[in-house]
Amino acid sequence: MIADLIYSYSPRQAGTLIKRYKRFLADIKLSSGEVITAHCPNTGPMIGVSTPGSPVLVSYSDNPKRKHAYTWEAIQVNDTVPTWVGINTSLPNRVIKSALENHLLPDLAHRYETVRPEVRYGKDHKSRIDFLLTGKEDRPIYLEVKNVTWAKETNALFPDTVTTRGQKHLRELMALLPEAHPIMLYFINRGDCTHFSVGETADPKYAELLAAAIEKGVEVLPYRFENATEGIRFLGKAELVSSH
Length: 244
Hints:
Elements: E1 5-8, E2 13-21, E3 25-30, E4 35-39, E5 55-60, E6 70-77, E7 83-86, H1 91-101, E8 112-121, E9 127-135, E10 141-148, E11 150-152, E12 155-158, H2 164-176, E13 181-188, E14 195-198, H3 204-216, E15 219-227, E16 231-237, E17 239-240
Parallel strand pairs: 10-13, 12-14, 13-15, 14-17
Antiparallel strand pairs: 1-16, 2-3, 2-5, 3-4, 5-6, 6-7, 8-9, 9-10, 11-12, 15-16
Helix pairs in contact: 2-3
C-alpha cells in the first residue's frame, strides 16, 4: 500500500530542462511552450539529475522582490522506471520539521517532546544544528539533515562532491558525545533507492569521518522519500551499506 503524504506542497508546473548554468540558474521550457529562467536551489554537481531534455517541475512565486519567479523543484530520471528526484536543497528541512512536529518518523517519534530548529552549537557556537530534540531522553538529540540525490542503480550516495562543510558537521557531531545523542539523517530525495552508502569516490575524507562517527556512536538514519505530484511520501529506512 502506498504511504500517505507526510508533506504537501503548492501546485507545480511541468516543463522540460533546456540547460543548467552558473550553478543557480536553469532555462526551462514550460508545458505551455513558454521558456523561463528558474532559480536552481542546488549548488552541487547534480550528478545524473541535470540532464537536458528531462521532464522537470517548477514552483511559482508572485513575490515582486524575487529576481526569478520560478524555482526548479524536481527532475524525472530513469526511462525504465520514471522517478521524480527533488533537487531543492531547502525542501528536506521543511519536510523533516513538519514530520518531527507531528511525530511521524518511527525511529524518533517517542524520543522527544520539543523540536527546536537552527540551534547554535559546536566550538564557539558558530555552527547551527538543523534540529535539537529534547524532553524525553536523558541526553538531548542533535539532528543534522543532508539532501541526497546521487544514485547508482538502487544505491543512494552522499556526498556527490568534496564537502568541507559536511566534514565539519561530522567532526562537530562526534564532539557532542557522550553528553548528547547526535544523529545524521540522510534525506534520500528519490523513491527508487533501497540502499545507502557514503560517496567515497567523491569525498574520501568524508567517508573516513563518517566511518569514525558511526564507530563512536553517531546514529545514522538513511531515510527514503518519494516525490509525488502533490507532496512527499515517507518510504522508510534504506539499508546502510558499509564502504569498509
